[in-house]
Design brief:
two-stranded antiparallel ribbon, DNA-binding, 2 strands, 8 helices, DNA binding (chains A, B), homodimer, WH_DNA-bd_sf (chains A, B)
Amino acid sequence: MSLNSFKCCPIDNTFKIIGKKFTMHIIRNMAMKEHTRFNQFLDHIEEINPKTLSARLKEMEKAGLISREVYDETPIRVEYHLTNKGKDLQGILLQMAAFSMKHYPKQVFKDGKARTVKQVFNISSPKLN
Amino acid sequence: MSLNSFKCCPIDNTFKIIGKKFTMHIIRNMAMKEHTRFNQFLDHIEEINPKTLSARLKEMEKAGLISREVYDETPIRVEYHLTNKGKDLQGILLQMAAFSMKHYPKQVFKDGKARTVKQVFNISSPKLN
DNA sequence: CGGAATCCTGAGAGATACTG
DNA sequence: CAGTATCTCTCAGGATTCCG
């Protein structure tokens, strides 16, 4: 199976979906911290502002990475959840975590000692689809 | 092992290194097409221009992802190669490819049929460090 | 060949205030 | 609570030319 079977580059395509600032941070907080709500993201994502957060959430919903559900209570409640497609980004997320945990232990860990993803998240290598 | 051992987020840290436009494209061409030279990147990376390419290469060298070697011939020859650290980004690269190959087969493949990374690259899941 | 130097532009991000 | 509405502004990136 050769590279000739490609019409466009899958890496370029993926980058267009997740490459914008904060997109992976939102995915991270949904996948690893189980955050679901607007102000939760706003309060816990480094340096994000409501305008940008709103824009990212809309893009991600349009791309099918997340779902948006409105609960008509007072006060209103809106929850965002990862779709199965969004969950498939966890492989990228873990590889990203692994890279910094290996190469930047002093910045990443309080005690400065490197750890593996398996140690921290108790997870094994994500399958390649 | 809990999330409390983190000083800063490894995903955020990685994103700061590879999140800029074209960085992963350069890594891709080095890792998968064995490109090594300035004009090779310039000619084969979609929409890049010399100024941005130059900036990315410098950042990447400074970050220790690539090495720069000058061969004093006429005309001068300069080669860029992935360091071991740069090679450790291949796991992310493969996960990125896998995502689009699974979810966007019609955009990615000429025949529109999904393939796995294993089928295309004859490679198994990258290890998580 | 491998860039550096300019100049230019606009998308996108930041800050803040406001609203249903 | 979950967003809009402005308004400002920077700087990443594009286009082009030139240089050792």
